[in-house]
Write a structure and sequence with these properties.
CATH architecture of one domain: 2-Layer Sandwich
Structural class: alpha+beta
């Protein structure tokens, strides 16, 4: 009888664990799909431009707003993210995931923060103020939007501190309507680490890089021979890509570099295939092998007004003075979001990377000359191993830009 009870308990625990894993996987997939949708919207009409964004830096800001949103404003945020932070399971998992992401014991330095700047005269709900204080390095600060210089200085100082000095003069552009501004949402994401196998500085040479328009430029091309994860991909539509994964110290974070197999194929042929399913399939199907790796040094920095892109993702009401419902923040005030800004920066060198931010069938084919050469536009993803979160994603069209 006792044996039967123990067996039943073990089966029950196994069932719960499986349900928990399935739930966590669904949140990770939703995060990846949001990252993909965000990237696609931000890159529309920007075919020849270097791009970098930090999807996790944007989602954490939207999650914070969701804590104080009600009515249709809340529903739009829930629809875009795919979940609600008012679900205790979601909230517990996100806090655990963000905690793992920013664990200071890891060698890679990852710092994620979100700032909510509110007009000083607004009376805030004590419950929301408490939630903000414990939400992923959340910061709620009072500002006087009628004093633009003072407010800009405060926000710039906050961003500079959270990005460890990597992002400066964040509020270089004046706020459009300071008299109407009530809430400004700002997120930062900082990452710095050393390659598991650093590139040798003495091996860096100026080699050819073919841009999308066919012109050829000389760029500082890093070189190493090491064991990397490598895969060749063939999609159902017969698109072929090459993927290489380079790890950072302690393997907590890695960089996926993806280029079309055919040199004349544009990088835009890769981007539509970036989904939660394909990333999982690709990473699980790659094989470890010793290769010659050529990768250009590059630095990319972008700043985006999120109001336009979030509107195209169905998040419209929160920017409307007449429709926004943030009664969870303050019942006395009719609040709306007047500013939503995101800035991201990444720099890749021989030592490693520092970055900051305010479905396929995989085939493996050995060749006699195992060589990966990013000598044309490529797509990259910085991915956290334990959580599966995309820290940064983007493309390099011109390493010298």
């Amino acid at each position: 009888m006792c044996s039967l009870s123990v067996s039943s308990l073990l089966l029950h625990l196994l069932f719960i664990m499986r349900r928990t894993c399935a739930f966590q996987d669904s949140i990770r997939q939703l995060n990846t799909e949001f990252a993909r949708n965000l990237y696609q919207k931000l890159t529309e009409g920007e075919e020849y431009r270097n791009i970098v964004i930090s999807p996790v830096g944007v989602t954490v800001a939207l999650e914070l707003l969701q804590l104080g949103a009600k009515g249709n404003t809340f529903k739009q945020l829930e629809s875009a993210l795919g979940y609600t932070v008012h679900d205790s399971r979601v909230r517990h998992f996100l806090r655990s995931m963000y905690g793992d992401l920013t664990n200071s014991t890891h060698t890679p330095a990852v710092q994620l923060a979100c700032g909510l700047f509110l007009e000083s005269s607004i009376q805030i709900s004590p419950h929301f103020s408490e939630d903000t204080g414990v939400w992923i390095n959340g910061s709620l600060q009072r500002v006087n939007f009628s004093n633009l210089n003072e407010t800009a200085t405060l926000i710039n100082k906050w961003v500079n501190t959270k990005s460890r000095g990597e992002i400066k003069d964040f509020m270089s552009q004046p706020i459009a309507s300071p008299s109407l501004t009530q809430i400004a949402v700002i997120s930062t994401m900082y990452f710095k680490s050393t390659w598991q196998n650093p590139f040798s500085l003495s091996e860096t040479q100026h080699l050819s890089f073919t841009k999308a328009d066919g012109s050829v430029i000389k760029v500082p091309m890093m070189y190493q021979t090491s064991a990397v994860n490598y895969g060749q991909i063939k999609t159902g539509s017969n698109q072929r890509f090459i993927v290489v994964e380079l790890g950072y110290l302690e393997h907590a974070v890695s960089m996926l570099i993806i280029i079309p197999s055919e040199k004349k194929k544009p990088i835009s042929s890769v981007e539509p295939h970036i989904t939660a399913h394909t990333l999982s399939t690709w990473t699980n199907s790659m094989r470890r092998m010793k290769m010659e790796v050529f990768l250009p040094k590059f630095k990319v920095q972008n700043k985006f007004n999120l109001k336009t892109v979030l509107t195209t993702l169905g998040i419209t009401d929160l920017f409307s003075p007449s429709k926004a419902d943030f009664s969870g923040i303050s019942e006395q005030e009719k609040l709306f979001v007047s500013e939503a800004i995101h800035e991201a920066k990444i720099e890749v060198t021989e030592d490693g990377t520092k970055a900051a931010a305010a479905t396929a069938m995989v085939l493996l084919k050995r060749s006699r000359a195992l060589k990966f050469k990013a000598d044309r536009p490529f797509f990259f993803i910085l991915r956290h191993a334990n959580t599966g979160r995309i820290l940064f994603m983007g493309r390099v069209m011109d390493p010298l830009e």
